[in-house]
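Reply to dn_fold:

You asked what the input looked like. This is it:
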Amino acid sequence: MIFDNINTVKKKETVESVATNRKARHDFFILETYEAGISLEGPEVKSLRLKQATITQGFARIENGSVLLYGLHIAPYAYNTMKEIDPLRTRKLLLNRGEIKKLENATAIKGNTLVALEIYFKKGWAKVLLGLAKGKNAADRHEQIKKRDIDRELRRELGDKFKG
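and this is what came back:
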């Protein structure tokens, strides 16, 4: 038959980025990353698809055995016909029990926190990339900038030698 393999067609592994927290990698050492689903309401999903979200203040906490995301701002959808939703409301993250327990133990260590790094759509589902992070102090940030400048100079010099 013509339609034999119509059920075997898989969805493509497309990842569509909505918002990234570039400042998080500047302010924190990222120790591990975790992918979690986000519990959203209809108009919020439509706003995310239009890339109307900011995650720069996003962080997560573990409370009563569930992971909650704070500081994610999703702009209200312009054509919303449902009830009005608070753009800064706390959203539940969807992780399995083992991951939640592992994160709970890791964040119990002083200085560790959960930071939202990126929001994206994967196979049509809204996901957030959480980073288990340790804060940097000013000296660490300056050292990182110096190292980046030295690497840039080195690449520039090596590039000139290979060209000529």
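The mean pLDDT is 85.
Hope that clears it up.
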